[in-house]
Specification:
OB fold (Dihydrolipoamide Acetyltransferase, E2P), 252 residues, alpha+beta, single chain, six-stranded antiparallel beta sheet, five-stranded mixed β-barrel, 36% strand, 5 helices
């Protein structure tokens, strides 16, 4: 075998190995910006985000990962919550502290199955625990922040039917975390507008079940799709009945 054929064979083996390797949410987050990841599979826990970005979040056993369209054309179809999705090839980037994974082409977003149950949320027993969580772990993670009330609440009896709104919650009046209704609500504008909103009464306690986010070095919680029912709290949307017990498993 000639030296040239050895080099070609080695390159071919490397290409096959790369194409069949599987990254995870955690391994992609650990990549330097501009690096490629391959075959990341997870369940969609949130669909929506910034307008025009076709964002959604997937979660696997290692954590959550925000998927962003970038500038790829034609665009992919934004998956639904509960879809199992594989990003076959993508590039890791960071935008104002938010880690994103941008598919290489629209065909890089592959829906494997639909209607899957969501993973159990990681439980933050307090707002302080959410604020103290490692940045990369918190980003994209499907979480439950327990027994909070809104210090900045929606103005009306219902949530707004348009996104891009910021609110704040606390559990003790001192530790605060932002809860953002994102600009892209994945077509759920009417459902949000019909949903009863919590008040800023400290007695009006709820649990928040949604995805963690990071922007400008500040930990946040993002809500879009799912919405749940029109009731203020339910067991399918992001606003759940408050729990105060310590029996649930907590990440910290």
């Amino acid at each position: 075998m000639t030296k040239a054929s050895i080099v070609i064979t080695a390159m071919a083996i490397l290409a096959v190995s790369t194409a069949t390797s599987a990254d995870t949410a955690a391994s992609v987050k650990a990549l330097p910006d501009g690096s490629q990841g391959f075959n990341v599979t997870g369940i969609v826990t949130s669909s929506g985000g910034s307008t025009g970005r076709l964002q959604f979040v997937i979660q696997d056993a290692t954590g959550g990962l925000l998927i962003d369209r970038g500038t790829i054309t034609p665009p992919y179809a934004q998956p639904n919550v509960g879809d199992s999705v594989t990003i076959t090839t993508g590039t890791k980037s960071t935008y104002f502290g938010s880690v994103q994974f941008v598919p290489e082409i629209s065909g890089s977003v592959v829906v494997n199955s639909t209607g899957n149950p969501l993973p159990a949320p990681y439980v933050y027993p307090s707002v302080a625990a959410a604020l103290a969580a490692p940045t990369l772990d918190h980003q994209g993670l499907y979480v439950r922040v327990k027994n909070v009330y809104f210090t900045i609440a929606p103005a009306g009896p219902n949530w707004p039917s348009t996104g891009g709104m910021n609110y704040e919650v606390t559990d003790n009046g001192a530790d605060l975390i932002r809860v953002r209704l994102t600009t892209d609500l994945h077509g759920q504008e009417t459902n949000w507008g019909n949903k009863t909103a919590p008040t800023n009464n400290p007695a009006d306690r709820v649990d928040i079940v949604a995805v963690g986010a990071q922007y400008n070095s500040a930990s946040q919680i993002y809500m879009n799709d799912p919405v749940g029912t029109s009731a203020k709290t339910d067991e399918t949307g992001p606003i759940r009945p408050a729990t105060t017990s310590v029996g649930e498993w907590a990440l910290y």
